[in-house]
Amino acid sequence: MSKPIETSEQAELIARLKEVRAQAIEHARIAQDLARERRRIMEQLLGEGFNQADLARELGVTRQAIQKMMSVGRKNSHA
Predict the structure, then answer these.
(1) How many whole angstroms separate alpha carbon 35 and alpha carbon 29?
(2) 3-state secondary structure labels for all residues of the chain
(3) What are the boundaries of the signal sequence (predicted)?
(4) Cα-Cα-Cα-Cα dihedral of 13, 14, 18, 24, to 10°?
(5) Which residues make Cβ contacts (< 8 Å) with residue 52, sequence separation at least 6?
(6) Is 56:66 a contact under the CB 8 Å cutoff?
(7) Which residues are CB-contacts of 59 (< 8 A; sequence separation ≥ 6)?
(8) Residue 75 has pLDDT above 90, yes or no
(9) What is the pLDDT of residue 1?
(10) CA distance linking residue 37 with residue 19, whole number of Å
(11) Do residues 17 and 23 touch, judged by C-beta distance below 8 A?
């Protein structure tokens, strides 16, 4: 049995919670799309002769971060 909404303040909080949840879901979808796009661009640059160290320097991250980005992109593209 669920707790009934008893006040207008509770109703407003529940409505806001639903809005925030919907926004979080949309942002997660956008983040997945951007990760796929990032991986596609990185694969293109790697195909043009850049290596992971080159990409890491350009992005100001470690080579291991590039490896992780590529790995996450692969996992998300199969989901």
Answers:
(1) 10
(2) CCCCCCCHHHHHHHHHHHHHHHHHHHHHHHHHHHHHHHHHHHHHHHHCCCCHHHHHHHHCCCHHHHHHHHHHHHHHHCC
(3) none
(4) 50
(5) 46, 63, 66, 67, 70
(6) yes
(7) 65, 66
(8) no
(9) 77
(10) 27
(11) no
Is the pTM higher than 0.70? The answer reads yes
b/e map of 60-69 (b: 16 or more CB within 10 Å)? eeeeeebeeb
Q: What is the per-residue pLDDT across 5-63, written as a single tens digit (0 to 9) for each? A: 999 999 999 999 999 999 999 999 999 999 999 999 999 999 999 999 999 999 999 99
Q: Rounded to whole angstroms, how far apart are CA atoms 74 and 14? A: 37
Q: Residue 77 and residue 79: Cα distance in Å, rounded?
A: 6
Cβ atoms of residues 65 and 35 within 8 Å: no
Residues in the chain: 79
